Amino acid sequence: MYPCLLRLTRIETEGRCCNGLRHGYHHLHYDVSCSRRDSRIAEEIIKERLVPIFDDTSHKMPDGCPLDPARSMYRDNEQHKLQEDPNRWSCQYCGKAFGNQGFLDDHFDRRHKSTILQPPSGVCLASYCDILRCEVNSPSYKPKPSCNNTLMTTLHNRCVKTVKGCVPLHLSGMKKYSFINDMRLPVCEYLTCERYDEPPIPRPSHFLRIAAILVGISFFFSAVIFSLLVCTDALMTEPLDENGVILRKKRSKHVVIRIPGGSGTLRQRHRDDTDDDEDHYS
Description:
Structural class: mainly alpha
Number of strands: 6
Distance between the termini: 114 Å
Order of helices and strands: HHHHHEEEHHHHHEEE
Low-confidence stretches: 1-32, 272-282
Strand order of the largest sheet: 1-2-3
Radius of gyration: 37 Å
Number of helices: 10
Helix content: 40-55%
Shape: elongated
Strand content: 5-15%
């Protein structure tokens, strides 16, 4: 029995998604057979949103992770496809050619069943399309007018439980919590009635993130160098004495005072800050 059939039976027994999918978001329902098309979509989503998290941290998916693309039951088949042109797909096992990918998939099922990775090693990635929102990635997808909040809560909880099963075993404490959060945000947080129909936010490539960091570092050092040049230029314009000490500039103050009595004429007092305390009157 395919792993997706096993999973579907367990979900129905627990009164979970399968029954709920027929109410509200009925469009989330997937066939009981493991769809090759949906498995391909699920694998693309996983590679786009989850695999980079492992690559960036130099971690590997644990053997028991159900979202590991390497465990896809059709992985070997996908690696033995060759698209020669839009209307010619070739089987790299036996060399036969077909007019489209669907015919080639049927050929694998009929002639090369032994190449399908069986459970417990193999996983039907299509069985995770409900939490990965495979349908939203379709160009023809249109938002649905109704939504079942209870179903969304169930899917969200299942999603969190699934990503927890993909945490590297050696992580613990805050590192483990942070890793779970990194996987939860690009997948599970869309499983609400408010966000389900949102297109996924593209994750910046590793190259772009490195480029952004380098640009930021360049701006920082440019600002430091500019500040040093300005300070150096200001110091070089100050007058120096024979010992290289900056001379203090004279600052003149003119104070106008009124002398009580007399004719009331104004006298001006002039003081030079750098001279001795000597008053000059005019």
